[in-house]
Amino acid sequence: MIAIGGNSLIKDPRHLSESDQYRALTETSARIAPIVRDGWRVAIGHGNGPQVGFVLRRSELAAGELPEVPLDVCDAETQGSIGYELQQTLGNAFRRLGIDRQAVTVVTQVEVDPADPAFGAPSKPIGSFMDRATAIRRRDEDGWVVREDAGRGWRRVVASPRPLRIVEEAAVTALLGRGFVVITVGGGGIPVVADEEGHLRGIAAVIDKDHASALLASVVGADVFVISTAVERVALDWGRPGQRPVDRLTVSEARRYLAEGVHFAPGSMAPKIEACIDFLERGGAEAVITSPDNLGLALLGRAGTHIVRD
Fold first, then answer.
1. Catalytic annotation, pick one of 272, 284, 294, 304
2. Catalytic residue among 47, 189, 209, 296, which?
């Protein structure tokens, strides 16, 4: 299971167009294809934060002409669009290597607990900045939770609950068993809640894509869970004079460093470490954090930070 980060889709703030994203995914696919050639069965999760922001902004600009797009539908739209580009770029990479394989996207719902404590403390900013008057109006009229953001304006914030269940897990497992490369849990999945009868409905929330990918990795029985991010290895004392990269951590070591609170930035490396620990504690054998350039080497044990059970 490979969870690819935002740097696999958007290189920098100057390259935000669909053609820029396609080029970035072409590079990422060229790194994943040799892993498939080497015999690995592969599932891929991905982020979608900026892309959801783009959809929301287009919806805001069209307000008065067209209905606004709900957040869960934004998730579905971006799962489809990013999945399409990954399917195509992976297919092209497979053909270049002479691999008879096909990638397929599963638009994935992820069930969360409506009683998750995160709903009582929304913290994930989404959408555009607003002035105070607009923010208060949206709060009063639409029930939004809004918050002032470091003097830059007001933004809507939503909850980031933990994933409980991958709704389409049986389909993903079946496709992997048939040899497909499966693109799934895009953006952490579309957050849904179930009523007493098991009927699902989408909600406004953001699920961390690394936590959702870790859950899927457990469900499908992945041997290795890989998080692709901007750095080749995890560093202790990140951003401090004593910063040092690490090649290997046990679960107990990772937990201790997390608890110390100075090594892994909240909202950045900390949730990645947490996701790796969750995967391993559910029975996984190995988790790896590394950069896109080093995916193949990491699976050979020659790059990245490897996290293992005690």
1. 272
2. 209
Asked if residue 216 lies in contact with residue 172, where contact means CB atoms within 8 angstroms, the answer is yes
**pLDDT per residue over 156-199, tens digit each?**
999 999 999 999 999 999 999 999 999 999 999 999 999 999 99
- 3-class DSSP state of 177: helix
| 7 among known catalytic residues | yes
Residue extents of the structural domains in the chain: 223-310
Read off the pLDDT band of 60 (50, 70, 90).
Answer: confident
Average pLDDT, the chain: 93
Told to judge if 11 belongs to the known catalytic residues of this protein, a careful annotator would answer no
Active-site residue, 294 included: no
pLDDT per residue as tens digits for the range 61-115: 898 899 989 999 999 999 999 999 999 999 999 999 999 999 999 999 999 999 9
**Annotation says 272 is catalytic:** yes
The 10 Å Cβ neighbour count of residue 189 is 29
Q: Which of 6, 53, 91, 202 is catalytic?
A: 6
Report angle CA 248, 299, 210 to the nearest 5 degrees.
75
User: 205 CB contacts (<8 Å, ≥6 apart)?
Assistant: 71, 112, 118, 119, 124, 158, 159, 160, 161, 191
Check: CB of residue 111 under 8 Å from CB of residue 200. Answer: yes
CB neighbour burial string for 3-31, b if at least 16 within 10 angstroms, e if fewer: bbbbbbbbeeeeeeeeeebeebbbebbbb
Any idea which fold 223-310 has?
Carbamate kinase (3.40.1160)
